[in-house]
Amino acid sequence: GTKWLHKVRRFQGEAFCVKSLRSCGAIIVGKTNMHELGLGTSGINPHYG
Q: How is 26-39 classified by DSSP, letter by letter?
């Protein structure tokens, strides 16, 4: 994600795929971190670590 975009479109809830996984008993235990807008290869985002 990008730091300024949170003001444009607020989080509304879980994605359909996450809801489907949870309904089948999956437990979400982590998250990924990537470049702003997915435009890099190192996975380091200066805003979020």
A: ---------SGGG-
pLDDT in tens, 32-43: 776 666 677 776
Report CA dihedral (21, 24, 25, 31) to the nearest 10 degrees: 0
Q: State residue 2's pLDDT score.
A: 66
| Burial class of residue 45 (count of CB atoms within 10 Å of its CB; 0-12, 13-18, 19+) | middle
Higher pLDDT, 2 or 22: 22
Residue 37 Ramachandran class (φ > 0 left, ψ -120 to 50 alpha, else beta): left
